[in-house]
Write a structure and sequence with these properties.
Chain lengths: ~375, ~575
């Protein structure tokens, strides 16, 4: 009987001997390996004892064996080999070390730096005073909030796939912010320390560099959702009132403009966030005859309703630090915009749907007050 | 030369907790040496929970916890040590809770507790089914806070002592290659267990090779109760990967091919939640007597279907994942094929109740140590408690000890030279044997002859086979990779040699104990024999390389041995 064989194309590099990395192909009988890790063991035991890779628990809990398989970060011990072979459809399966980490040997890369980042971000518990004699009382719902991030095994699969790391070497990495989030939503942690961690996430970890590509969520072998945790930490940074960060300013712009008009204002965004004067840009658009404004005309009384909604939201979520003066300033600008000729067309379109809009709006509003 | 007041070897729960307590005194230089990054350690694989008499769910007390532990140990545990452990239980839980361990909670916000095998009350605190993982990671975060110094990816070679005091250790720097002597006034070995001697029939990580225990044997110091290896009842059929006892704690059934809940024959009262040794033997017996499931009848089923998807995903998410990935079975819809798997080493480095060996400044804690709190059989949920309690006790003891002593004058050159010569000898040998083959043979011999059911003749054969393997390794097992950097071939060879040494001791102790007690079950001596064997077995290696076997009294304080029934 012929045994089905698969070809593994494995990255090899021993800086002690090799001038540069190269790839070597190995044939592995498919029935000899349940997981990719088994396949690597097959190579090591039968074909080449010098292949370097990390492993320990072989049960997806220690985080040692993350590698890049056909370009995607995965835990070798949790990657079913047969599935991999079927998908490869006769082509070699390429196995490489994780991206962005210093090479040590073959598939082994240096994990010191990502561990070091945790130290820099200070992701740990400083217990809140007074420390109780027994345990802190924690509602089960709170535990749920950090259930997912505490699943993290620090395998750095997310780090090796991260678009932000590629562009910003200072960026700490998705796993690190999941850990920040985990401690920031833990009611046992001192408030001062939570602020410290969030500040570190921005100053040391460059959390605003995340482009929300969601790859970290896709590659995580433990179901952690770092991109979501990053968004949450960013929101918390705004709530904490860290106003001087471009990211927070951007968030504030989003909050202000969306509440005010239902959409962001792409032209004033650079000005509000980075202090860039938008006039030259606007003029350039106009010169080319582009429709510059996208903001619809508000209905009579809409702005008042909007203020009411903001009041309610503020009551419900006191940490949502809304600057009403700023909102007023926006209102003024919005009105100016509405009076400009360029948005007549949009307004017309809006008028057509006016009735429908009103019905929906009132429904939403009554729902909102109903739940209060 | 690296120099520490206290050097901790191993960075699992015991090592990290010891590091936290040892470094309480900022004047002490504390280092942690570990062959894998700390969070990789096998503590992270502990699933079900950690026992302590918090009495959050039912009336309970440290004394009741102690009694359950002593009874579970088949009266071989030292009762003074057990009392220390159970008494410290609640304060340890509160301490790690204050450090951030995300325990599962009761509706009123207190720590939830669930029933576990051999316990009279729901006493096991847990964080879903990844209790060890969150404890390990929380402790690691705390060591970062405390600025603990780590030597990551360093492999322990030998413990150096002068017959009275410890001098330090020799170690191999895995990443860069090279032997180092690390000087230390005190050394705490927290190097974990050695159930990998059963190779493919174990729940252990690939690196649970008893490196510290073997080093202690080579250093001429005693190991204790090495015949006692716990077989966990529920390992996955194909890989031995563990399905937590929590699965039965939550109400899972064990069924044979007739769909019968066979535990009613063996432990009618406790059923699936009888202690591990009893459940493991019951499963093995069902299989041996032809009531196993599947074509070959070589496994039993763990049925969780009646718990429902919601409860499974909430309480046992990892179990569901393991069954799906490693067995291709969805526990929501099908029973999980399981069979017992070598899981925990009750035996280990002989220490007193403070974790001290007979050499001053040399300590052991955690699974590497035999203090002994688990005796002949460990209760589920007691190992996480053990590692923390004795991690702390050894650290505090060592911290006190080192303040009063000076470093001994040695540069360690001679020790380094000896190790270098040994490693070169491994590389210069002509390769005649394959590591993978020898390792597999060792595992097969141990599993088939020194496993769950034991008998004189097969065990004597096993001992001979292990000694043969040692000879073959000595003459023909070479390290063919001569690179210094991340030389896996070297590390795996050294690990295998450690396992072989410990397998020899295990087989010898199992032959010498002519009775059945806890996890050590002999078909030829099916009863417990308190008159002759209510004793710890002790083995040390003499200078000529032969093993010397002896006995040591068990400490009994409150509980006289009774028949152990569940």
């Amino acid at each position: 009987m012929t045994v089905e064989r698969a070809v593994l194309r494995v990255y090899r590099y021993n800086p002690e001997r090799d001038e540069k990395p190269y790839y070597r192909e190995y044939e592995v009988p498919v029935d000899k390996a349940q997981t990719l890790l088994d396949a690597l063991f097959y190579i090591q035991e039968n074909l080449d004892p010098t292949l370097g890779f990390r492993f320990f628990c072989r049960a997806a809990v220690c985080g040692s064996c993350a590698v890049k398989v056909n370009g995607i970060s995965r835990l070798a011990c949790k990657t079913p080999f047969k599935e991999l072979v079927e998908k490869a459809n006769g082509k070699p399966i390429t196995v490489e070390p994780l991206n962005f980490l210093k090479p040590i040997r073959d598939l082994v890369v240096d994990h010191d730096q990502p561990f070091e980042s945790l130290k820099k971000l200070q992701t740990w518990c400083e217990p809140k005073e007074p420390i109780p004699e027994k345990e802190y009382r924690i509602p089960p719902e709170e535990v749920k909030q950090y259930e997912r991030p505490t699943n993290c095994i620090l395998c750095f699969a997310c780090y090796g796939s991260c678009e932000a790391v590629m562009d910003d070497p200072k960026y700490a990495g998705p796993y690190a912010f999941s850990r920040v989030y985990r401690y920031v939503v833990d009611s046992r942690v001192k408030e001062e320390h939570k602020r410290e961690m969030v500040k570190n996430a921005m100053d040391v970890g460059d959390i605003w560099s995340c482009v929300q590509c969601q790859k970290c969520i896709y590659v995580c072998p433990k179901g952690v959702r770092p991109a979501e945790d990053i968004q949450n930490v960013r929101g918390i940074a705004a709530e904490y009132g860290f106003k001087d960060y471009p990211g927070v300013k951007k968030l504030q712009h989003f909050v202000d403009w969306i509440y005010a008009t239902g959409q962001i204002n792409r032209l004033s965004l650079p000005e509000e966030v980075y202090g860039v004067d938008p006039t030259p840009l606007i003029n350039k658009f106009r010169e080319r005859g582009a429709e510059v404004w996208e903001v619809p005309k508000p209905l009579p009384g809409l702005l008042e309703f909007r203020d009411l909604i903001l009041e309610v939201m503020k009551e419900k979520k006191p940490h949502l630090d809304i600057d009403f003066h700023h909102v007023r300033r926006i209102d003024k600008r919005v009105e100016e915009v509405f009076n400009a000729d360029v948005c007549t067309k949009i307004t017309e379109r809006f008028e057509e749907q006016r009735e429908d809009f009103f019905t929906r709006f009132w429904k939403k509003l009554s729902e909102f007050f109903g739940t209060k | 030369m690296l120099e520490y007041d206290i050097l901790i070897v191993g960075a699992g729960g015991a090592g990290l907790y010891a590091a936290l307590w040892a470094s309480q005194n900022p004047n002490l230089k504390v280092g942690v040496m570990t062959k894998v990054y700390p969070v990789r350690s096998h503590t992270g694989a502990a699933e079900g929970g950690i026992n302590a008499a918090l009495a959050n769910v039912a009336e309970d007390s440290p004394e009741k916890h102690a009694f359950d532990t002593v009874k579970g140990s088949d009266y071989l545990a030292d009762q003074d040590a057990v009392e220390i452990m159970t008494k410290m239980g609640p304060e340890i839980i509160y301490d790690i809770e204050h450090r951030g361990v995300p325990f599962s909670r009761l509706p009123d916000g207190r720590i939830a507790q669930r029933p576990f095998g051999g316990a009279s009350f729901p006493r096991t605190c847990y964080a879903a089914d990844r209790t060890g993982l969150v404890i390990l990671h929380t402790l690691y975060d705390q060591t970062l806070k405390q600025g603990v110094e780590f030597l990551n990816e360093w492999f322990l070679l030998n413990v150096i002592h002068n017959g009275e005091r410890v001098l330090g250790v020799t170690a191999w720097d895995i990443r860069n290659g090279g032997v180092h002597f690390i000087k230390a006034k005190a050394v705490i070995l927290a190097t974990g267990g050695h159930a990998r001697m059963y190779w493919n029939r174990t729940s252990n990580a690939l690196g649970n090779t008893g490196d510290g225990t073997a080093a202690v044997l080579r250093a001429g110091l005693p190991l204790k109760d090495m015949e006692f290896v716990q077989f966990h009842p529920t390992g996955l059929r194909k890989t031995g990967i563990l399905i937590t006892e929590g699965a039965r704690g939550e109400g899972g059934y064990l069924i044979n091919k007739d769909g019968e809940r066979f535990m009613k024959k063996y432990a009618p009262e406790k059923m699936e939640l009888a202690p591990r040794d009893i459940v493991a033997r019951s499963i093995e017996r069902e299989i041996l007597e032809g009531r196993g499931c599947g074509e070959k009848g070589d496994y039993i089923c763990l049925d969780l279907r009646h718990l429902g998807e919601k409860k499974l995903m909430e309480r046992l998410p990892q179990t569901v994942e393991h069954a799906r990935v490693y067995e291709g079975v969805d526990p929501v819809k099908e029973p999980i094929p399981i069979r017992p798997t070598a899981h925990y080493s009750m035996g280990g480095i002989d220490t007193d109740k403070y974790g001290q060996t007979e050499i001053k400044g040399l300590y052991a804690a955690g699974e590497a140590a035999c203090i002994s709190v688990h005796g002949a059989n460990r209760l589920g949920g007691n190992s996480l408690l053990d590692i923390l309690v004795f991690g702390k006790i050894t650290a505090e003891h060592a911290a006190e000890y080192v303040v009063g002593v000076e470093h001994l004058p040695t540069e360690g050159g001679e020790y380094v030279k000896r190790e270098e010569e040994f490693i070169s000898s491994l590389m210069d040998k002509e390769p005649k044997e394959k590591l993978a083959d020898l390792r597999r043979e060792m595992g097969d011999v141990m599993a088939s002859k020194v496993g769950i059911f034991r008998e004189e003749k097969p065990m004597v054969e096993a001992l001979e086979r292990i000694r043969e393997l040692k000879e073959r390794a000595k003459s023909g097992l070479a390290v063919t990779d001569r690179s210094k950097r991340f030389n896996l071939n070297l590390i795996q060879t050294l690990e295998f040699l450690n396992l072989l040494d410990l397998a020899e001791v295990t087989a010898l102790c199992a032959i010498e104990r002519k009775e059945s007690r806890g996890a050590h079950y002999r078909l030829d001596y099916p009863n417990r024999d308190d008159e002759n064997y209510l004793k710890h077995s002790v083995v040390r290696r003499k200078e000529d390389g032969t093993l010397q076997h002896g006995w040591k009294e068990v400490v009994i304080t409150k509980w006289q041995p009774q028949e152990r029934k569940y």
